[in-house]
Amino acid sequence: MAENKNSFIIYTDWKQDFEFLTDEEAGKLIKHLLRFASDENPTIENEDRLLQFAAQKMKAVMKKDLKKYEAVIQKRSEAGKKGGVNSGKSRTSKQDEANKANASTPKQNERVNDNVNDNVILLKKETKYVVDDEAENVEKISEFKNFLKTEKQIQMDRLRMAHKLTDEELDLKIDEFVEKKVSWGDDEKWHNTNDMAKNFEFWLNKYPKIQISSFKDWDKKQFFENINTSSGTVSKEVKQDFFNHYSQPTPSGEMLFQSFNAWDTKTRMKKWINSQNKFANVS
């Protein structure tokens, strides 16, 4: 069997095969399968033809499952490597943007009056806060995804079967979980990566459905409506400023808020208000 794989699936379809066997023969068959799974190359005596037939049938299924398992491992390993490369590119790109913003500040300040200066500085600081926050999160997101997809195979296989998900659907749920939790700061509550894996299982039991649409599909009207329904007693002026900032178009054509890995308007609004208060006090 595969390295570090210490389990295999017993199918309920095999029940009929076991019914034809005596309890002694059934015990021999189970021991034979366990030895086969442990790479011990077991054999069955020639006179036990019924036992041989059942064993060969079940081992063929186990071999097929093993090939599928190895293919999944390979695919997830490659996905993890790509995630690491992309996160590096993303951090470099965001740092370049931050450097350009810093370099352009003196020229901006020369063209505006004192009142506008305050607003520009505040916006610049808030933007830098968001960029730094996201750059730090990108690396964590990549590491957490890779851990769940490559280091917790037995747990992920069990969850995939329990929720009747395909490999691709399980990967999507892992991505959704990690991106949301890190973006919202919930990852700070995890003691270690194993604690994260437990949290993922609890979360998946609560939210097993695949998201059909997301914030990346919203238009400006939907985004503004979401702000109104998510912001409670926040003033209209703050809501409008928030909307104006995060609805700005990016070079890729999407709005700024859609460039984030995950988005929750209520949580982001709190960060927006806190950052404005924080930098207002500094100024």
TrEMBL record:
Region Disordered: what ranges? 80-114
**Any idea where the DUF6291 domain is?**
7-84
What InterPro entries does the record point to?
A: DUF6291 (IPR046258)
Q: Which domain of life is it from?
A: Bacteria
Q: Specify the protein name.
A: DUF6291 domain-containing protein
